[in-house]
Specification:
Two copies of one chain form a homodimer. Chain A is 40% helix and 17% strand. With 413 residues, the first copy, chain A, is an alpha/beta fold.
């Protein structure tokens, strides 16, 4: 009975997949935060290296992964895909559950996939110093690892609630040589390219083939959308180009229900109205979600690409409260061993629920979910869960209503 | 350029190797703590399942790994062997450095290799409840994982200094369903079989073959000896049976220098004189080492098998202070990504020093070391290191002298 499906380094993807080549129509334009007019690559040049900007606007189907980036990926990639035999047994379900595990990266999550690429392109353009914002510290630690490899100085502004809730993620960032300062502002999730993360989905595709299955459902948690996008985009390609049928389920916290309760509107990418304006599902850029333990899922908006998937009916979404998410996290840890990050546990909750539906219906569906990271730096959250101290925050309807009153007024072409 | 050497689940060892079959003479007998006479299996029956006792005294060369144990091993085994290309580059050494990484287990160390087997044999004998002691919590978490799989209740007595220094290892134990209580006594390291851990060395042997190299030096950290033994025993077999030549280096903390400064004598296995008396290198069972951050290496004695290797001249030993160990840990984390456990960092320090010797001599030696675990639950130690708060304790000569006065008086046959 095989437990893991492992690819060799030679089978690692050498190209990122760009779903924009296959979408029925181009994404709505990105607008300048002040002029409210569509921006061109030159407008973004002060913010990002040109290579990254060109990727973001590219309609090429594939973009080569630079060799230097591939070499660093090999420190942990290809990542394993597991068949969750023990979880299936515990749930007594006829469903077949698979999970792609990104916690094997040194930073413990999927985020180094894009951080390495971004540090590389910055280095290429002669950048010497970077500063960034991080929520729960996953992004900050990933970029610290990446900047360390390319000899870039890094300063990380860490959202205050996480700075104190997850002190050891801060230590991790410092171990890789970056500086950390607590930040009063929200994380902008700027510049986390879904494109760079498609290695996750491409590997999963090959590994599912090794396992002799194709997923009926693919599930991932969503904050800004990079984890979900990185996993599902290659499956979207198979839907759009080869007529495959797969349900894609994006899972978010009830405390920050961007896709399930947000509006589809133009809004700022950041909380202070300095970042470009994009069309997306949003709770309003001034909305500040409660301090839940899945700190990586506290973003007011959703990536334009994932928003487009929901708009086109290619992806669905659902939201869960903290306690049922941790119930699933502990059930998973006891069945499969791995203690998941609170963010990833949202995907587990949905996968378990899908498997329980199969138990009712007797269907043997194939479920694949993204286990985007481990919870080694989130054990304080587990302590609070076991102590019965986790709040299941009500959907903050009033706060969202207030935030939505501050959407920018735009009249796009 | 290949970074990782990965075996398939089919290539996983199916037998444990027992070096006792190949030693020139049997180990000195184990003595009863009260009668001081050699014990037989029946004397140990109240303490351990018979299957484990029989393994400990067996002179069979190979012992089959039960299928149920193999199935659980597959959750993380075979573990990867890495070529440390980046570390070599940083050190500018002609040496080739490889490391076997056991941090991929759900508990983050090599200890589940034996914990799973021990829980299995206890279950087989109808045991329902186990209690155990743990130092830094590595063993406690490994056994919590194992007992969870076999439906055994577990209570973990965790050495006080670690209970407070590493609170999240406690949370981990609780997540897998065991109870934890702080304990004033020292960890006894009882019942951690080297035999069960030889899967590490057997896999390494195959992986070095994949890499086309054979190690000139094999390095591991030593506390009780299970990590070092698990890695080196198959290489000892090749020395004793096939005339291969490899230096084996056991690395310990200066604060607890069992092999480098201890005496070769009969002593109790535990700190209170209740456990069987064995012939080993020891600092005296009443010796309490200072509260260093490598909590897993704070044991007064050394496994009889590892002691025998040093006695026969098959293994050598060396000791390091905390700060140079953390220097190497951070250098490794920045080169290879993985943040090591303070225990494992002892092996890194020695491997780096061996590689620097090669740099001087121009020799391109092949160095293999055991990276026995990650440091995700030890970040507080890194914080203290960066803050310059780690003490390099002087060798506690007076305290050891005092402890050696309390060795049991025995007159073995």
């Amino acid at each position: 009975m095989q437990t893991k499906y492992i690819l060799s380094e030679k089978e690692m993807p050498t190209r990122w997949y760009n779903v924009q080549a296959d979408l029925p129509s181009p994404l709505p334009p990105v607008l300048h935060p002040i002029t409210k007019q569509p921006v061109g690559p030159q407008d973004l040049a002060p913010l990002f290296p040109m290579a990254i900007i060109m990727q973001e606007v590219s309609t090429e189907r594939y973009i080569d992964i630079p060799e230097e980036v591939q070499e660093i990926y090999k420190l942990w990639r290809p990542s394993p895909l597991y068949r969750a035999h023990r979880l299936e047994r515990v749930l007594d379900t006829p469903a077949k559950i698979y999970y792609k595990y990104e916690g094997v990266s040194p930073a413990g999550s999927h985020k180094p996939n894009t951080a390495i690429a971004q540090a590389y392109y910055n280095k290429q353009e002669g950048v010497k110093r970077i500063s960034t914002e991080t929520g729960a510290g996953q992004w900050g630690s990933a970029l610290a690892l990446a900047c360390n490899y390319f000899g870039l100085e890094l300063k990380v502004y860490m959202v205050k609630v996480s700075y104190f809730q997850k002190p050891y993620r801060r230590s991790l960032i410092e171990t890789w040589g970056a500086k950390v300062v607590p930040s009063p502002s929200m994380d902008t999730q700027a510049g986390r390219s879904i494109l760079d993360q498609t290695v996750i989905g491409e590997e999963s595709m090959k590994q599912m083939e090794m396992a002799g299955d194709y997923p009926d459902v693919v599930i991932g948690c969503v904050g800004g959308g990079s984890n979900f996008g990185g996993l599902v985009m290659p499956f979207v390609r198979e839907m759009l180009r080869n007529g495959k049928k797969t349900r894609l389920v994006a899972v978010e916290p009830e405390a920050c229900p961007t896709m399930t309760r947000g509006v589809d509107a133009y809004d700022f990418g950041d909380s202070v109205g300095m970042a470009p304006i994009v069309k997306m599902f949003t709770l309003g850029h001034t909305f500040t979600p409660p301090g839940i333990h899945a700190g990586g899922l506290r973003y007011h908006g959703m990536s334009p690409l994932i928003s487009e998937l929901q708009r086109l009916g290619l992806a669905e979404s659902r939201a869960y409260h903290q306690n049922p998410v941790f119930d699933a996290a502990v059930q998973f840890a006891r069945a499969e061993g791995i203690v998941p990050a609170p963010e990833s546990a949202h995907a587990i909750r949905a996968a378990v629920d899908e498997a329980l539906v199969c138990k009712q219906s007797g269907e043997s569906k194939v479920i694949l979910f993204g286990l985007s990271g481990h919870g080694h730096f989130d054990m304080g959250s587990y302590d609070r869960y076991f102590a019965g101290e986790l709040e299941d925050y009500a959907y903050p309807e009033e706060k969202v209503k207030e935030a939505l009153a501050h959407l920018p007024e735009v009249t796009p072409a």
